[in-house]
Amino acid sequence: MYFNYFNRDVLKMHVIGIIILLISIGVNNTAVADNYDFDEILPPNWSSSFAHGNNDNGDIVGYGKVGAIIKAFHYSNGSYSELMPPGWSSAYALRINSSSEIVGYGNDGDIDKGFIYHDGTYSELLPPGWEWAWGIRNNNIGDVVGGGGYGSSIKAFLFSSGSYSELLPPGWTVSFAYGINNMGEIVGNGYDSEGVTKAFKYSNGTYTEIIPPGWTESLAYGINNGGEIVGNGVNGNGNHYGYHYHNGIFTEIVPPAWNDIVLEDINNNGDITGYGNDGLTIKGFIYRNGAYTVLLPPDVLRSRAIGINNMGQVVGRGYNAEGSMGIGFAATPCQISPVRIIGSPITYYSSLQDAYDAANEGSTIESHDVIFQDDLILDLNKIITMRGGYDCAYSYVTGNTTLNGNLTIDNGIVVMQNFHLQ
Predict the structure, then answer these.
(1) Which of the listed ranges 31-35, 212-216, 318-322, 373-377 does the model predict with the highest average pLDDT?
(2) 412 lies in which domain range?
(3) How many domains does the chain have?
(4) Are the C-beta atoms of 32 and 9 separated by less than 8 Å?
(5) In this predicted structure, what is the pLDDT of residue 12?
(6) Which distant-in-sequence residues (6+ apart) come within 8 Å of 414 by Cβ?
(7) Same domain, 294 and 158
(8) CATH code for position 87
C-alpha cells in the first residue's frame, strides 16, 4: 500500500530460533509511512459529495449532489451546513481559511460567479467587465485568487482589500490562478506566447515561469508559506509526473511505477497531497518525510486526495464502484501508537522491537498497517504471537505490517500474522 522510490533496501534474514511465518515476502520499494483514520464526509440525504478544502480547525468544505442540484457544504464539529448564494442554481465550495471564510464559485442562473461566504453573508466575485469568474483559493489574510474572462479572453485575478487585479505573465495569452500563501505569493497556469502550457509564480509585481528542466509542460496548484510550490506536468519522456519546487530546485514527486500524477496541495510542513494512476486505478496519496502513503478509505476502489491542512488532515473523494458519483472523506493521522501488547492493561509502543522486548511469555503483539524502517531481533526464549495490519483503532485488519530491514531470529518461537517482509 505504501511507496517510496528512494528506498530499495532488501530484507536479510538470519534464523537460529523458530519462526512461523504467516506472511508475504517481497520488495515494494517502500519507506516508513503513516496510518490514517478515515471519516466519510457526506451531508444527510445527499447522493454524492467531494470534500475539497480544510483549515487547521478541522472545518471542511466541498460540494455534492442533492437530487439534481449541485450544492456546497460546510462541515464543522460534526454538523453540516448547506451553502448556496440566494437565487443561484449551483454552488461549489473549494477552500476555507483560518477565519472560516469560504471561497468557491457557482451559477447565478445566468453566468458563473465566484463567492465568499463568512458569518452568514455571501459576497459575489466578478471583476468589472468580466462575463464569468471562479473563486479558487483564499489565504488567511482574506485574499482570493481565481480566474475568469470576457469574450475569448481567460485571465487570472487577485481580489484583495476590495479591489481586483488581473494577473497575466508578459506575452502570455491565457492564465488562471490556483494558489496563494499568506505572503501574497500566487501560483497558477496558462499558455505562453508560443502556446506552451506553463506554470507561473507571481510575487511583488514579478512573474516567474515554473517548469522543470526538460519538461514540455507544467501546471502549479499549491504554494505554502515557505514558498514551496507543487504541481505536475509532462517530462521529456512523455510521463505525467508531479514536481516540488523550492529555491531554484525541482524534485520529481511520483510513487514508483505510477503515472498521471496530479499534485493538489502542500501544507506549511512540506507535506504534499495528490493522486495518480498506480497501473490499475486512480488513488490518492500523501508524500511526507520521504514516504508515500496511499489514501484509500475502506471499501473504496478509487480515490483523489485534494486538500491538506497543517495538522496533516487530508480531504478528498472516494469511489466505491466504477461510475460511482463518489463520497467525500477526511483522512486524519492516527494518534494511537503503532504497536501494542494485549493485556490488562494494554500497553503501547512506538516500535516492534520495544514491544517484543517487553512482552511476556505467550503475549500477543498487534501492530498497525504501516511500515517500520527498523531491524527486528527476536532473541529471547519465549513464545510470542505478532499480528499485523490493523487500522488506527485496532478494530479490524486493513492490510499488512511491513518490516523494511533485517529480521534476526536467535531464540524462542514467534508466530507472525499479516506481516510483509521486504
Answers:
(1) 212-216
(2) 2-33+339-421
(3) 2
(4) no
(5) 33
(6) 17, 18, 19, 20, 378, 383, 384, 385, 386
(7) yes
(8) 2.130.10.150
